[in-house]
Design goal:
six-stranded parallel sheet, 11 strands, three-stranded antiparallel sheet, Deoxyhypusine Synthase, globular, alpha/beta, 362 residues, 16 helices
């Protein structure tokens, strides 16, 4: 049989070892030098110090993950932030949760070429995410099989009924534990780190990604795993409602930004509870405000919706592509902040949700 020629010859991508990097680089010196200059460099310094403030003042810190940073190796920073107790809850696209699993199970992701001949790649069954290559058979189809195995062997025994309704945080907690138990490299997965530290991981949508597609296939096999949007909305709002202070850290915009920021309007506007909004916000984005889209809208605009308490220096937006800035900010707090004890919020969802239900007016 003729061997299939393949352009999957680039350098392999793995999550960055953030702990090792912090031991060798002075992020404090970089951030302080940025703060003595101008433009976005000074904004980056303000954002890094704001994240440090969130950590040191005990905020319940949400991380929003849009874009394709995880599949590009940035998950290593997320893993280390989780392990240090610097992230308490996450909202991510289902796509990045799906791609996160490749690293845990040793499925190949390679550096590629953003100017490649895509017709040629398609014939070779290679999919491209900008300058990254993923093998359709060795990675995507193999990952699909692992997800279906998880569904059929790990979820079905939990209920006597075939209809399993759960929040995406519940689903991802079980998926993360499955990774811890079965994967060859669980230390490479932020889902596994989140499960190990009790950090709830929500999807901004239950359907527009490969995990949802595989759940649809399981539906045809008689297993109806329902990711409940209502539970997602209520649980995330309950986390914010039960927190003394809250900080949002958003990588990009899109669905994760909206999911995190809608928690306060859910509490006040929908449930009728007197609530002022989150205390602090930090976003890294390339989106512009002037097109009216949520990804680029300012935090001050969010104040009008009750998403944040008030316009202040504790709301910082950095206009840059986050693969450049996120490592600097993450490195800065990893170097300069003492680890916090994990809040283990995923284990407290029932208690927090009960208080929200008790206090609601509508």
């Amino acid at each position: 049989m003729k061997k299939r020629k393949c352009d999957m010859m680039g350098r392999g991508i793995l999550p960055i070892n953030a702990k090792l990097l912090v031991e060798k680089v002075s992020f404090k010196l970089i951030i302080e030098s940025f703060g003595r200059t101008c433009f976005e460099a000074r904004n980056v310094a303000e954002g890094a110090k704001l994240f440090k403030k969130m950590i040191e003042e005990g905020d319940t810190i949400w991380l929003g993950i849009a874009g394709a940073g995880i599949v590009g190796g940035l998950g290593g920073y997320v893993i280390e932030l989780i392990k240090r107790g610097f992230i308490d809850a996450i909202c991510t696209t289902g796509a990045q949760a799906y791609h996160d699993l490749h690293f845990a199970f040793g499925l190949p992701v390679k550096q590629g070429d953003s100017k490649a001949n895509d017709n040629k790649l398609h014939k070779q069954r290679i999919v491209r995410i900008y300058d990254m290559y993923i093998d359709e058979e060795k990675t995507l189809l193999a990952q699909d099989e692992l997800i279906r195995e998880f569904c059929s062997h790990q979820l079905l025994p939990l209920r006597t009924l075939e209809n399993l309704s759960m929040s995406s945080a519940d689903f991802n907690f079980r998926l993360g534990n499955y990774v811890l138990e079965t994967a060859k490299f669980p230390e490479r997965s932020f889902l596994a780190a989140a499960a190990d530290n009790g950090v709830p991981v929500y999807f901004d949508s239950g359907s527009n990604h490969s995990i949802g597609m595989n759940l649809a296939a399981e539906y045809l096999n008689g297993l109806n795993v329902e990711i409940s949007s209502s539970l997602d909305i209520l649980e995330s709002a309950a986390i914010v409602y039960n927190s003394k202070t809250t900080g949002f850290f958003e990588l990009g915009g899109g669905g994760p930004k909206n999911f995190i920021q809608q928690t306060s309007p859910t509490i006040k506007q929908i449930l009728g509870i007197d609530f002022e909004g989150a205390d602090r916000g930090l976003q890294i984005t390339t989106a512009l405000e002037r097109d009216g889209g949520l990804s680029g809208c300012t935090f001050n605009e969010g104040v009008t919706w009750g998403k944040y308490k008030k316009p202040s220096k504790d709301l910082v937006q950095i206009f840059c592509e986050y693969s450049i800035v996120f490592p600097l900010i993450a490195g800065y707090v990893l170097e300069n902040c003492k680890p916090r004890k994990p809040k283990q919020l995923v284990l407290q969802n029932d208690r927090m949700l009960e208080k929200l239900k008790k206090d609601r007016k509508n």
